[in-house]
Amino acid sequence: MRAFVAVTDNDWFDFLSRRPDLDEVNFWTPSGKPLAHMSLGQPILFKLHAPHNYIAGGGFFSTFSVLPASIAWETFGEMNGAPTMPEMRRRIERHRRVAADPRQDYDVGCTILADPFFLDRSRWIPPPGDFHANVVRGKSYDLREGSGRELWEQVLGARALIRHAAAERIDGPMYGGEIAVRPRLGQGAFRVLVTDAYERRCAVTREKALPVLQAAHIRPVSAGGVHSLDNGLLLRSDIHALYDRGYVTVTPDLTFRVSRRLKDDFDNGEPYYPLSGSTIWAPSDESRKPSEKLLEWHADTVYKG
Questions:
Q1: Which residues, in sequence order, are bridge partners of residue 140?
Q2: Can you list the residues of the chain whose pLDDT is less than 50?
Q3: Measured CA distances, 233 to 32, 122, 273, 294 (Å)
Q4: Edge-to-edge, what's the strand order for the sheet holding 43-48?
Q5: What is the pLDDT of residue 181?
Q6: Which one-letter DSSP state was computed for residue 99?
Q7: What pLDDT is attached to residue 182?
Q8: Model pLDDT, residue 21
Q9: Alpha carbon distance, N-terminus to C-terminus of the chain
Q10: Distance set, CA 27 to CA 6, 55, 79, 134, 253 (Å)
Q11: Given the DSSP bridges, would you call strands 2-8 and 138-142 parallel, antiparallel or unpaired?
């Protein structure tokens, strides 16, 4: 297993380190570029800028996507490491060295980290000796040997502050086999994963305007569902609202259905009935398709058919 020691904005770190019990954060980059090639569950450690040249925390890689700043803020809010959207925009413009433009919705690279941890200042760790001052983005280390293993052992020395117990399994297989750490997905990571799996278009209408697309849980978290790709559908906001209320459903064979109750209850529904009986668009990869069992649960339990 490898870890990536990422050069980290001090303001981002300071803001998030004062917020306990975060389940995910957005380690965003103003350039829109990924930090490096990452595998699911790979540790990313936060190395602060001068004058704080220490490793002060980390998290576990969930996914990466390039999103407009407005969508990143809508999805993660303060978990972007800023108190407000205008402050996040100011930081993007400062890093990009551009003049403020309120009409510009900057694309940012969003590296989503699960189970973030922030070490008490007394537990901050000096970076490895070969982590040179001119490193701009970060550096990867093999945690099984040499300076990487020594670093990881120091991180694990603060295990009381690390909430992901599986992180202690440093002898697991490398990327390409079974991963050693499988982070729990948060709401934000769920939205990003579903959005990208469905290629940023509504499964029912094929709408591609990103601001109106939403990741719908087939089985809500409040009813025992989880933030997993097979429990998600990407839907236009109005379709999502009807889906959550049972006026529409998707059957296990991926057929979209509209309940007669929609017209009975609201004397309307004309835009939706022509879609009834159509096959939704779903990812071709079987591992990314919605669960048939969960679709059946929604059709049997929520749908007002």
A1: 4
A2: 164-180
A3: 25, 45, 19, 11
A4: 24-29, 107-118, 55-68, 43-48, 2-8, 138-142
A5: 56
A6: -
A7: 64
A8: 85
A9: 49
A10: 10, 15, 9, 21, 38
A11: antiparallel
Whole-Å CA distances, 148 to 120, 166, 182, 241, 287: 21, 18, 20, 48, 33
pLDDT score of 173: 34
Residue whose token pair is 């071709």: 284
Helix (H) or strand (E) holding 92: helix 85-96
**Hey, is 242 helix, strand or coil?**
helix
The alpha carbon of 270 is separated from its chain's Cα centroid by a whole number of angstroms, namely 35
Q: What are 286's two structure tokens? A: 């079987």
- Please tell me the predicted confidence (pLDDT) of residue 41: 93
Q: What is the residue whose two structure tokens read 């510009």? A: 104
Residue-wise burial string across 53-87, b where 16 or more C-beta atoms lie within 10 A, e elsewhere: ebbbbbbbbbbbbbbebebbbebbebbbbbeeeee
Residue linked to tokens 């999805």 = 75
pLDDT tens per residue, range 194-224: 999 999 999 999 999 999 999 999 999 999 9
Residue with tokens 């890689």: 61
| Domains along the sequence of the chain with CATH | 2-168 (2.30.130.30), 187-301 (no CATH)
